[in-house]
Write a structure and sequence with these properties.
Length: 368
């Protein structure tokens, strides 16, 4: 049985190089952005963070997405989040990318702005009155500053040695808030129709591209669905993904869960194919894939077994297998899978992302 698994792995495209536009990666595995919530108060990564990225690269993963980085101080989303809002952040980040490159890995930044989720001031698409907080609307002038900040952060990313840029357009942060009709009640050019709600994302993309050119890939992590009652839907997601892919995006990573998220609505994203049942968003991914071919697609959330990973690429649901929590527990999971381990031992308990430890300790698996 083990011999057969090893033989299958040796043949599998999962472990063979893949071209992500101009970037060659050594296999189809992607470590999805995972904040270690352990950078210091000024947003500098610590030695422990650098060691983690070294271990990930040693463990054989093809592409690493660094945990999200705030592009402006006012967009910092939580304690312990790392920054790329100033030139002074660059040298430490360069140490981190050097550690990855020394071990044959490739790494991209993930650029983010917290919007309503920011620590210093809650500001987003529109005035919002939550149960325990109020947020104000960002002015058009401020949106131009946000776009500019994403561009500056993209340039800094290259100075810091990153191999590409991922825009964080998922999980209820600023860009995903703009996409959602539940969070975005604006009445100007950035609200209302889907075309208007996607305007900020398109401006951010165009700005980044104008700063870094075409030799470096730009990726987008986006929601397939907000899983809220009146938020961003899979049909809208397919439209936005298609529009940005037509502009030249290199890869879209499909995730889900945004503003007003309700756990009981997740079922609607599943596939009825039992072979990919563990991949939570597989059903939605098929719909988005139709609209974005031939752009590279990565799929994240719940993927744990080699069988499921193989089926995802064999059936063309996605090109890249993206995971987060399995790498927290087993930074060398890719080597283990290649060596015959049938699945990640992560149980998806979620203890590693308990927000009470953000800024207080380094990311770790809490299960023995
Ligand atoms: C500790 C932790 C930190 C995370 N940080 C980020 C992040 O910085 N950016 C992001 O897009 N997603 C983040 N995520 C979400 C993951 O990238 C991923 O989408 C999610 O965990 C589902 O994938 P999984 O089932 O393979 O863990 C984080 C998840 C965890 C558990």
């Amino acid at each position: 049985m083990m011999d057969l698994l090893l033989f299958t792995c040796a043949m599998s495209v999962l472990f063979k190089p893949y071209s992500l536009g101009p970037l060659e990666i050594r296999n189809r595995f992607m470590r999805s952005a995972t904040t270690s919530y352990w950078s210091d108060e000024r947003g500098f990564v610590r030695d422990e963070n650098i060691r983690l990225y070294r271990r990930l690269a040693e463990g054989g993963v093809g592409l690493i997405v660094k945990g999200h980085l705030y592009v402006m101080d006012s967009g910092k989303a939580h304690e312990g989040m790392a920054g790329i809002s100033h030139d002074y952040h660059v040298p430490r980040l360069k140490e981190l990318t050097d550690a990855v490159h020394e071990h044959g890995g490739k790494i991209v930044t993930q650029l983010n702005h917290g919007g309503y989720n920011s620590i210093s001031e809650k500001a987003g698409p529109s005035y919002y009155r939550g149960e325990s907080w109020n947020a104000r609307a960002l002015s058009v002038e401020e949106l131009h500053e946000v776009v500019e900040a994403f561009g500056d952060a993209a340039e800094r990313s290259l100075e810091a040695g990153f191999d590409g840029i991922q825009i964080h357009g998922a999980h209820g942060y600023l860009i995903s808030q703009f996409l959602s009709k539940e969070a975005n009640k604006r009445e100007d050019d950035y609200g209302g129709s889907l075309e208007n709600r996607m305007r900020l994302l398109m401006e951010v993309y165009d700005e980044i591209r104008s700063r870094i050119g075409r030799d470096v890939p730009v990726l987008l992590k986006m929601n397939s669905d907000d899983f809220s009652l009146d938020g961003f839907t899979v049909e809208e997601s397919a439209e936005v993904a298609q529009a940005i892919c037509k502009r030249g995006l290199e890869a879209v990573e499909i995730s889900g869960g945004g503003f007003g998220r309700r756990d009981d609505l997740y079922e609607r994203a599943r596939s009825d194919d039992p072979e990919v049942a563990e991949a939570i968003f597989a059903g939605h991914a098929v719909k988005i894939r139709e609209a974005t071919k031939p752009t590279t697609m990565a799929l994240v959330n719940g993927i744990r077994s080699l069988g499921c990973m193989q089926t995802i690429v064999d059936k063309g649901l996605a090109d890249l297998i993206s995971m987060s929590r399995p790498f927290v527990r087993e930074p060398d999971i890719v080597r283990k899978l290649e060596g015959g381990q049938a699945e990640a031992t992560c149980t998806s308990c979620g203890a590693c992302s308990g927000r009470d430890v953000f800024g207080k300790e380094m990311l770790r698996c809490h299960i023995d």
